[in-house]
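Homework help board

Subject: predicted structure for assignment chain

Our instructor gave us this sequence and asked us to write out the predicted structure in token form, then describe one feature. I got the tokens but I'm not sure how to describe them. Can anyone check?
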Amino acid sequence: MTQADTEPASVEQQRLLGHTAPSMVDMRNLFQVNVEEGRHLWAMVYLLHKYFGSDGRDEAEELLRRRSGDPDNPRVLQAFNKPIYDWLAFYCFTCFTDRDGKYQLAALAESGFDPLARTTRFMLTEEAHHLSVGESGVARVVERTAQLMEQGIDPRKVAAIPIDILQKYVSEWASASYDLFGGEDSTNAAESFATSLKGAIARATASTRIRRR
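My token output:
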């Protein structure tokens, strides 16, 4: 359910970006990311309906009631309630937040619950594309700012993004995304591994918790 909840949340966060796309390539990437997130939602909802009976159907219905940033019915994870009004935020989101998404999917791909493991494998390929969109986007912004600074031009005077603003975006989205990994002694991670819901990637977190005990 939590994995499913993140998929429509990111589409809701990014829904206004089509009005200000920097290029047709960026527009195409945005549409592809959103379509693939929708496909990931469908895959998770299918599992809820197919294998979890009335509880699964209830959880699937709840997905329709929540909205990103809604004060009464927000999305489950706080990073998916943050507004994305501009493309630098989108690049940072896909660079950092989708990195956690790939980590979580890789852990689910090792799940002892075979339908879940098989379902998440195709999602990993698409998540890698989301990461590349974010990484290339941030790199383009950094490169343009560096070029201007090298020429002695203040980025603010030519509608570019200065380093201090770029640093604020990176700090904000990186910290919000790191939180999604959970603590190294996370009880949820330990239980997911113990029940074989997640595989080898979650093992380090769970084993750390066991050693500390």
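Reply (TA_rk): Your tokens look well-formed. For the description, you could write something like this. Confidence is low (pLDDT under 50) at residues 202-213. That's the kind of observation they're looking for.
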